[in-house]
Every structure is written in structure tokens, then in C-alpha cells.
Amino acid sequence: MKTFDYVRPATIPEAVAAASAPGAAYLAAGTNLVDLMKGGIAQPGRLVDIGHLPGLDRIEHMPDGGVRIGALVRNADLAYDRDFARRFPAVAEALLSGASPQLRNAATVGGNLMQRTRCAYFYDLASACNKREPGSGCDALGGENRLHAVLGWSESCIATHPSDFCVPLVALNATVEIEGAAGRREVPVESFHRLPDGHPERDSVLEPGELITGVRLPAEAAGFAGHARYLKVRERTSYAFAVVSAVAALRIEDGAIAEARIALGGVALKPWRVRDAEASLADARPDAPAFREAARIALADARPSGENGFKIELARRIVTRALTLAAAGTPDRVPALPASPFAPVPGELSHV
Amino acid sequence: MSEISLTQNPAHVRHGSNVGQPLTRRDGLLKVTGAARYAADNHPESMVYAALAVSSIARGRVTALDVAAAKAHPGVIDVMTPENRPPLAEDPDAKNHPFMFRLDVLQNDRVRYPNQPIAVVIADTLEAATEGAALLAPRYDVEPARVGLDGNEVFTPQGVGVGNPPNDSHGDVEAGLAAASRRVEATYETPAQYHNPMEPHAIVAAWDGDRLSIDTPTQGLAMAVGRVAGLFGIAPEDIHIRSPFLGGGFGGKGVMSGPQVLGILAARMVGRPVKLVLRREQMYGPVGHRGPTRQTLRLGTAGDGALTALAHHTRTASSTFDDFFEPASNASHTLYASPAIATSHDGVRLDTGTPMFMRAPGEATGSLALEGALDEMAEACGMDPLDFRLKNYAEVEPTSGKPFSSKALRECYAQGAERFGWAARPLQPRQMRDASGLLVGWGMGTATFPALMFQAEARAAIKSDGTGLMETGAQDMGQGAWTALAQIAADGLGLDIDQVEFRAGTSDLPDAGIAGGSGHTATAGMALHDAGAKVIARLADLATSAENSPLFGAGNAGVVARDGRLFRRDDESRSESYADILARAGLPEIEARGKSAADPAVRNAYAMHAHGAVFAEVKVHPELGQIRVTRLVGAFAAGRVINPRMVESQYLGGMIWGVSFALHEHAITDRRSGRIMNANLAEYHVPVNADIPSVEAILVEEHDPHVNALGIKGVGEIGVTGTAGAIANAVWHATGIRVRHLPIGLEGLLAGGLGDA
Amino acid sequence: MSFSITLTVNEVARTVTLDDPRVTLLDLLRERLDLTGTKKGCDRGQCGACTVLVDGRRINSCLALAISHDGAQIRTIEGLAKGDELHPVQAAFIAHDGFQCGFCTPGQIMSAVGLIEEAQAGADPERVREGMSGNLCRCAAYAGITRAVLDAQERMAGAGRKDAA
């Protein structure tokens, strides 16, 4: 690991000032950043430790029914917050399907938004990677890319975003609170992460020195609580990144879908919301043909970036299945195997 | 109470009650309190840290290293490269015997595989050494990498495994196939796998003049000493290796690796003790792996389901510079009665580190393909897979015609099937679903592993207070040597286990052979047993020749050693304690040395193998294709069980390795660069706890009067065999899809049509 | 540049002068405080061998920079037993043979203690297995580990009830 200056600001303005210098990076728990530094992928010259900043570790239920999650709230604390999990169950399920208990105990909400791709070529310093080293090329193209992107990719980068948490956030219209030298701004999570578009080295819309201070979920997001599931296909039962994942959230009124939210994980360089597919479900009966049609629409623009064509069909199926599970109703408690295809399902679904 | 006899008609017998008891681990307290000292936990005075720099290319030459940049980093003491590496007394590329593997220890600038050591940085702190290694920023002349089983010229190796012939043939396979009423041909592919013990290879080396003190994990202390002595040109007596605990070995710590030797060289270079620990990603190259295979099985059966021919061909790979060829086809030698059996191997040389023995080398890979093909033939015959195996049960070893020294495989089948509920299995696939709609499948496989024995020595002593001491340089890598061997030692001395001090794990003790081949308990155990017999015989001589002993004159009748006393065999009212015998003789202690080796006469007369049957239940999501092994039952017969608790753990661990083999492990090599793209534990998957909801092992009673006097066959590897095949067969039974490309996963099932509307 | 930090490790305050901000909590424990019970299996948060409790929560100490944990309460495997009396989780790991080589064991045990204190899994074996899935065991002693955690938890609950009575 390259050496670095370590600074520990006492306030957000101090932090922003300290992190505005070139080569500076914010350190929270470090579960991703320290890993990247050990691998030589990240080489910040200065670490600005925000882990001790006051006021960022609270989950606040707002008078308008929304919730504000401080950037330093730990993944596990959010997932196990009873009120939060009751109102935003798919977010809790996604959180608990990610990483391991130890990592969830440390990793923060802000850090989760900032986590970088697991693309092996990004991690491998000897490989060309436009994200790590702009202009060097993309060795994932034509390489071992069975788990790479099928949506929104370009020749410059075919990596995927690894977060589970962010998938329901984009579906539920969450926003990111950002503090910077120029003041405070808010960005929808959906437009927080960037597609490759010429600058794959930039994961997000954050400007140098800008700090995530929190994430907000609007009150209306709680309206999906009764029918919201996150589903994640993995190559082992736990402690694995998604091959493909999906969140499905429905508002069902009088037996029909009043509103649907769908987003996919593991398919693109950002969590992938599919509004056309959502729209196709408006006023539809929550049944298999409608779900299959929504899944078809969701993946209409998908194309393989390599030997990963199977992910497209898998993604269609996971959308269909997530919608089916959501329609059946959110379980009282996050299942023992969160987001797993092996979590028990309500009886009436058994032979669907 | 068990009775152990060294020969069929011993002069003296010893009675003990330790063997067979499910004692908890004697090293358990140390391990649960963090006090067990593994190699990297040592920190001698003035120790410094070494870090490896490894190659990022598969083939070529290192043309430049920025040594100045590394040296300029604060804390860096020195950088070892081919230019300044201290000399060795022996060429690291020499190969004097099949157990000697060529090492990369900075002998030149050649790169012959990814992650090959190319320099060592030594620094005051671990952080400085690690960053120093990164600062070397090597440049290379790159040559094209040879990757994959079609990546180079095919040839027939001289030997497979350790010195086995590559081809073997009994009967006329082609005639058998021609005469068959049903034929199956199937090709299975298995990937390269890496041992990945939880403890990375580590060494703490300290020189004192030409004397060398080492803490390092090794499965073979005496062999390690011999290797280091040869390389450094020093006397074996001047080398002291401590390896009391290995944080897992699985074959990967069987021989001294290049990085361990580099740690010793670094210590020599800086004149201070050095600690060198591999980073996890550095475990994917210089410390061995299981080679990939492509196996083609051809089976023929007569109308009644009896095999008429069995042909098993394996393509595998070794490195470009050394030989280890996974002997996968040889798994077909012993299990099924076929009048014609032909096994063959060919190989390619690839730009990888040299493959090595990895838990059940050959048997794990080979049994996966064999059990899969057997299942395919059972399906073709419309027979239940267990009935099909019973139909082809080998009453004698089919390739040699020898009788088995013992073989309780029928009992394994019966007890495993009963416990699992196999009888309820529908013959056709895709017949079962659970309450959540998941596809359910049941599959089985036969497990087998040879009963091997190597050579070992041990020393036994009885002290004036009547307590005992047993010593042998055995290695505990988790199999339970500290416990099981102590049980054998105690019974060997006719003492309670608490009355015996058992020493192991260091190189100054008698050579206990290698902890490998599932032969360590038999090998080291028999040496302990023999040493015990000899020291009891000497004690008996003292007593029976002393006129004032109650045992005087009992020499011909013999004595029984039990509970720290010798009893006259024909009159147990006459006895004397060990302490009294030694006191009369005026001796502070009495000692003897014992040894063990396989008996060639017995080897000639009998086929000796452990056996088992594994039954697996898998669930598969009908559309999404994710697989989970929801139930595993294994029944194994491996001769005498020294400690059932530890043996059960070995079986369970082996079976979970089978899960890993079937569904998880897979080194992903970039086809262009030859680099391993998942050289970590996040993407090189091994099972986690949630993957293993239910696993059971049944210890089937088996008495083997021939294999060795203790009746031990070995249990460390057999659990892997059979299990991977059982799972693959269960996946077929759940889905109707045969996936022959391992590990079985989403693509294979989706490509096979799973969930297609 | 050097930094002075104070940690409470197994209830003992330790003031450490760090001459290097790169030192992880794991390397601090192992290489500078002679607490080698905590193990390094991957150094990248992928195996769980380095699990310790920080302020009562189980985390991977390999990804925690020591310098950012000034003032933290650390509990390691060395601090679990009370003298000769093993913690119930330690005793249960021995009784159920929840390990073989023992290298992952300190991490497994600390993780189990954390899991029990989190009180999310209860007596549901599936939740315990999921909750212990951040700790790889290559010897694959998983069945024994799960039994040990369930057994220890039950004993601790029983002892708690007795204490309360």
C-alpha cells in the first residue's frame, strides 16, 4: 500500500476542504477502499477520515413520512432497524444479501454507494482498464467476461456495479445528499452512478471533494412495503456477488397493479432501473403473462458484451420471478437466506 | 476395551482403552483460545519482514526491476533479485526423485508461470516490505502464453501421479464394447483447482552461523529437512523445523515450496530472522494446484446391465518445466467388475505453476467422471443407480485379480441408502419438487481411496514414575494427529492417555513420514505401535529375568501390559507396575525405537482400499438454475477407527470438498495472458456455511486383518471421492440435464434447456 | 509522521505510537501487540479469519486501519476466556469438533460471539448458517460450527436466565 497523509476533520466543511486536494479520498469503514489500496488500484495520497464526523450516523424518520439515512449508518444497522425494514423491506433484504455479516457491520451507507466494480481486469494491475487507467483499453473485452455487463456498456468498459443496496434505492426514487465546496446538492441515486460514456474512470457524478452525507427515501417509497422483494442469483448460497439481481416493488389496489418499480443489479455499470417495464404493468393484473411481458421489455435493449449471453435470459427470469414474489406479498421478516432463490415462498406460488 | 496385537502370535500383548474412543481434540484448548502457534505467529528477536514480488506474465523474461525505487522506500533493508541472491549448493531445477519438485528461487530472469516469484523485498515492517515489492514495477519480454488443454502439443507422459504408468489395460476393451448391447461415451471436464488452505504458506527463518531454525507448515518434516539441507549444503542435523500446527495442507504443503526457500535465503542475505508470508493471490502459482482434466469414458453393458468394457482416458496438463500429471483415469482400476478395463492419459505442458497432489489426486477428478458415466449407463439401462453399481460390484480387484484385504462396500451402500431414504427415489429425472416448487434430485456415487503406508520411526520411553513418552515427527494439519496418534501411543504402552506425553511436530523427532495419501495415521501409528511393543518387551525382559519379581520366569508365557502394569499372561494375579520394575533395575527410564513400513508380501497378496457410498440431494431453482446441496449422507468403511469424532470430521470435510468440486471451485485463466483472474477468495469460491445445510457421515464397521496390525486404512481423502459425482448425478436427477463441464452452474443448466418454456 | 492512539484491547488500555498510517488493526494486533490469535487468511475481507469485535461488533480487522480506531474497544480471541474458564462458544467448538486445522477458528469463534450478541439468528439453524457465512473454513467443519453456535447460544441463554433468577 502506498503511503498517505491521514487527516481526521472534525466538521463537514473541514472534511470537504481537506478532500478537495488532488489525490485525496474519503475514508469511512474502508471495507472497499482499503481493499483497493492493498491491491494498488486506489493510491490516494491523502485519506480524509470521515468516520468520526458527528451527526452522520442517524436514521431519521421525517415528518413527511420519508426517511433520511446518514452516510455513516452501517449497513447492518440499517437493515436491522425495525421501522426501516418494515417500511422498506426490499432495501433491508438487499442489504442483508450483500457481503458478509462482518462487512455489513462495518460498511457504511455512503461507502456502499461509492463501492467500485469487481471486474477482475479492474483489479488486475497488469491488465488494460479504462476505469483504472483512462485510455489504456479494456482487457475484459475478449477476456473472461461471463459475468460482465449486458446493458449500458460500451467498448470502453463492460464492467458491472456490484452493489445490492443501490438496486432497490434506484427503484424507490432515493436521493443522495451531497456536500461540496460549492454547497449542498441532491442527486437521485438513479443518476448518481455513471455509465462508461467516454469517462469510465468516473464512477459517479461526484465532483472532487464532494462528500455524501446521506441518502433519502421519499414517503411514497413506503407505499410498496406490502409487495417488495429483492432476488439475487449467486454462485454460492451466501457471501457472493450477484450474477444478476432484481428488485420488484408493487402497489396493488383492488387486485390490480397501481404502480410497479423494477430495477436490476449485476447487469450494467449502474443499478438499472427499467421504467418501460414498470409502465407496462400499470393497471395490469399481477399475473404471469404480465410479468413475463415486463421482463421482456426490461431486457429489450440487452446485448452480450462477451460470453455472457446467458445473463440476459437469466435477467428476464429473475425479473419475472421477483415480480411474482412481490405480488405474493412481502414476508413478515427478511428470510433466513435473504434474497435467495432458496428462501421459502408462499404456498400458492409453489407450482407457478 | 480394545486389544491390539502386533503380529498374529505375539510374545506380549498390550491392552488399552484409548483407541476407538471419541476423545475431543487434545490441541483443542490451544486452538480455541488463540494460543496455538502457527508459523506466522512467531516473532524472534530482531526479526524483519520479507515480501515477494511475483510475475504478472505467464512466460518470458524479466528485463527490469526498479530496485532503486524499492530501496528508497522508508524501512526497506534490501531487495533480493537473481543478481544478488545468495548462492545455493544445489540446482533448484534438479530432480533426483519423483517427490522432488523444481523450484523458482530467483535462479535466473526466466518467467515460466504467472505469480512466479521474481524478487524479494526485505524491510523493517510488513507495510514497507509489501509496498517495496509493489515499487519494483517489473518490465518484461513477454512470450505468448500456452493456456488450456488444447494449448500445446499433446504427448504421453512417462508417469502419472507419482510414478504410475500412464496406460494400463486388462482384457479387450474394444471387443467388450463391440459385444455390448448398450454403450455410453461421455466426456467430462474439470478445471484447475487451488488448495487454498486458510493459512497461506509462511516461514520464519533464522540463521545462527550455518545452523538454521525454521517455523513453517509442512506435511513432511523429514523431507523438508532433506530438501533444505540439499539446497543450502548444510547438514540435516543443523536444521530445526517446527511445524506443530498446519493451517490446512491438503497436499499443498507436502513439499517445500519456492517461497519458503526464498524466506530462508532472505534471512541469510540480511543476517537477521525473516518472516515471509504469501499473500492470498500469491498462492495461485508457486505452491501447487490440481491440474485440469478432460476425461472420456466409454462403457459397454450386456443386456442384464453387467459391464462388458470400461475405458477411461484423461487429458491433463503439467507445467512446462516439471512433471505432475493428475492420474484421473486410475480411479477406474478398482471399483467396478468389468472383464475389460483400459485406462490411459496424455498431457500438455502449459505456462502454469506445477500441479501437485491435491486432496485425492486422481481419485477426486477420476471418480467424478467415472461416477457420472456410470450414472449415465444406469439411466441407459433403465436401472436404479445403486442397483446398477451392485450389479457390477467387484468381488476382487478387477485389474489385478487380487482379493480385497477387506471390503465393506455393500454395507456402506446399504447403510447409506437406508439413512438417506434412497428406496423412495423415482427412476426418472425431474419427478420431485419441494413445497416451494424447487426441483429436487437424488444422486449417488461410490467412494474409494487406496490404503497407503509409508515409512516412519518413533521412540518410546517409560519413565521411573511409570509414565510414558512417545515421540514421532508427525504433522497435524487438522486431521487430528495430536489426538489419534496419542491414543495409539497410549495403548501401545498399556497406559492411560493422560499418563503419556506425546511429542510431535518438530524435525528433531524421529521421521514420521509424510502426512499425505491418507496414510499418516497408519504409518506414524504403526511406528508408535512398534516402538511401544519394543519398549514393553524390554520392560518384560527386566521383570521376567529378575528373581524377586512376581513375573520372574514368565518370559515364555508372555505378559500383558495394562494400566501401567505387566501381568503374567497365564496368571493375572501376578503383576508388577512399570515404576517398580524400573526402580528394581535402577533405571531412570527405558526406551526403544520402532518403525513402520508397508509389508510388500501383503501388498502383493491383497488389494487394499477404503470404500464408501455417498448419497446427495440437491435442489435446483427451476428457472434461475441456482443449485444447493440440501442433504448429503456418506457411509464409509476404512478399517479400524482410532477416533470416531475425528474420523467423522475428516469424512464430512472431504464430502464438502466434493460439494466444492461439483459446484464451486474453478480457477479462471485469461486465455490471452495466462493470468488467473480470480486469484482470491471472493471469486474463487469454496463453500460457505450456508452451502451446507445437512451433511452426515456413517462410520461402517470394518475389520481388516491384513492391511496393518492396527487395521487402519485412512480417511482423509475418501470423502471427496464419490461425492462430486453423487452431486452431479443428483443435479441430473433434479433437472434431466447432464452437465459434464465442472463446476456445474448456471450456464450449463440454462444451455441444457432448464426453465425453457 | 507518527500518531499516538489508544485502544482498549481485551479490557486493557494500550497506547500505541504508530509510525505508519497504513497499519491495519489486524497487523497491529499480530505484529506489534503480540496478539497472534487473530489470523490473516486473505487480508482482503474475503475469509473472516481476522474477525474481532470492535465496540462490540464483529468486523474484518484486515480492512480496518488502526489509525482510524483511536479509542475503540477491541475484543480478540485471547480475551474471551476468563482465566481457565472457557467462554461457552469456545467450549462448544471443542465439544462439537467445530474445527480441524484450527486456523480459521479464532475468527469463527469471534464471529459466533458477535452473532449471538447481535441476536438476529435465534435458534434457527438456517439463520445461524447464513450468519456464519462470513467465515470460510477450508477444512469444512461447518456442521460442527453450526451445532457449536446453537449449543453455546442455548447454554448462554440458560445461564442468563439463572443469573436473572
UniProtKB/TrEMBL annotation, chain A:
Keyword Transmembrane helix: no
GO molecular function: FAD binding; oxidoreductase activity
Keyword Chloroplast in record: no
Pfam families assigned to the protein according to its UniProt record, in alphabetical order: CO_deh_flav_C, FAD_binding_5
SMART domains listed in its UniProt record: CO_deh_flav_C (SM01092)
Domain FAD-binding PCMH-type: 1-222
Protein name: Xanthine dehydrogenase YagS FAD-binding subunit
Organism of provenance: Faunimonas pinastri
UniProtKB/TrEMBL annotation, chain B:
Cited InterPro entries: Ald_Oxase/Xan_DH_a/b (IPR000674), Ald_Oxase/Xan_DH_a/b_sf (IPR036856), Ald_Oxase/xanthine_DH-like (IPR016208), AldOxase/xan_DH_MoCoBD1 (IPR008274), AldOxase/xan_DH_MoCoBD2 (IPR046867), AldOxase/xan_DH_Mopterin-bd_sf (IPR037165)
Region entry Disordered, spans: 1-25
Domain Aldehyde oxidase/xanthine dehydrogenase a/b hammerhead: 33-144
Polar residues bias: start-end ranges: 1-10
SMART domains linked to this entry: Ald_Xan_dh_C
GO MF term list: iron ion binding; oxidoreductase activity
Top-rank lineage group of the source organism: Bacteria
Protein name, per record: Xanthine dehydrogenase YagR molybdenum-binding subunit
Organism expressing this protein natively: Faunimonas pinastri
Phylogenetic classification of the source organism: Bacteria, Pseudomonadati, Pseudomonadota, Alphaproteobacteria, Hyphomicrobiales
UniProtKB/TrEMBL annotation, chain C:
InterPro entries documented for this protein: 2Fe-2S-bd (IPR002888), 2Fe-2S-bd_dom_sf (IPR036884), 2Fe-2S_ferredoxin-like_sf (IPR036010), 2Fe-2S_ferredoxin-type (IPR001041), 2Fe2S_fd_BS (IPR006058), Aldehyde_Oxdr_Iron-Sulfur (IPR052914), Beta-grasp_dom_sf (IPR012675)
Signal peptide (residue range): none
SUPFAM superfamilies: 2Fe-2S ferredoxin-like, CO dehydrogenase ISP C-domain like
Record Pfam families: Fer2, Fer2_2
A GO MF label: oxidoreductase activity, acting on the aldehyde or oxo group of donors
Organism superkingdom: Bacteria
Domain annotation 2Fe-2S ferredoxin-type: ranges: 3-80
Keyword terms: 2Fe-2S, Iron, Iron-sulfur, Metal-binding, Oxidoreductase
Keyword field contains Repeat: no
Entry protein name: Xanthine dehydrogenase YagT iron-sulfur-binding subunit
The organism of origin for this protein: Faunimonas pinastri
Lineage, opening ranks: Bacteria, Pseudomonadati, Pseudomonadota, Alphaproteobacteria, Hyphomicrobiales
